[in-house]
Write a structure and sequence with these properties.
Helices cover 58% and strands 0% of the residues. With 217 residues, it is mostly helical. The protein folds into two domains: 92 residues, Helix-hairpin-Helix base-excision DNA repair enzymes (C-terminal) (Endonuclease Iii, domain 2), CATH 1.10.1670.10; 102 residues, Orthogonal Bundle (Endonuclease III, domain 1). Helix 3 crosses helix 4 and helix 8 crosses helix 10. 35% of the residues are buried.
């Protein structure tokens, strides 16, 4: 895609959804961090189902530590890899108390130093909680970057760095939300729904997926 195509790509996504937001539910920055850590290899819907009761009880790292690893597991046992995730959440909560006064740091390196927090998780927190123009490359963004031609790369970091260079203002702050939602609901992994895609004519993917027969009837 050239610069004009990229601008039009995001302009259309923004027109369809002017105020995109993460689908993970949280009441504060700490809860957001926990939710994103729990969402690895899990759906947002599944995480939200598990965290609604948890977040009604736990709003701070200190409260999480009081709940304890066993108590946390009871809340999140429906989420994949819940044993490892519970251990990480307790460890990161302890680190927040010990090193950051119980607050989530607005610094990507400091976030990545926490247990269970990788670059994608740190980028989500920096973007959603602190309004930083970051590009959190999950499976949807990685797929879209390569499939559409927007940002091709063999690793999430390569795709992220290409998006960093390619995405223009005024779309940078919300770009990763538009791409995640587009990948989740339209440009799906197994069968992209090209027939109802607002940016199909700008996309490098070929051949375009035709509408199901029932939809054409």
């Amino acid at each position: 895609m050239n610069k004009a195509d990229i601008f039009e790509f995001f302009r259309r996504l923004a027109e369809a959804n002017p105020h995109p937001e993460t689908e993970l539910e949280s009441g504060n920055t700490y809860q957001l961090l926990v939710a994103v850590v729990l969402s690895a290899q899990a759906t947002d819907a599944g995480v939200n189902k598990a965290t609604r009761r948890l977040f009604a009880e736990v709003t701070t790292p200190a409260q999480m530590l009081a709940l304890g690893e066993a108590g946390l597991k009871e809340h999140i046992k429906t989420i994949g890899l819940f044993n490892a995730k519970a251990k990480n959440v307790i460890a990161l909560s302890q680190a927040l108390v010990d090193r950051h006064g119980g607050e989530v740091p607005a610094d990507r390196d400091a976030l990545e130093a926490l247990a269970g927090v990788g670059r994608k998780t740190a980028n989500v927190v920096m973007n959603v909680a602190f309004g930083v123009e970051t590009f959190a490359v999950d499976t949807h963004l990685f797929r879209l970057g390569n499939r559409t031609g927007l940002a091709k790369g063999k690793t999430p970091l390569v795709v992220e760095l290409k998006l960093e260079k390619a995405v223009p203002q005024p779309f940078r702050l919300h770009a990763h939300h538009w791409l995640i939602l587009h990948g989740r609901y339209v440009c799906k992994a197994r069968r992209p729904e090209c027939w109802r895609c607002a940016v199909a004519d700008l996309c490098a993917y070929k051949p375009k997926t035709p509408a199901p027969a029932a939809s054409r009837a």
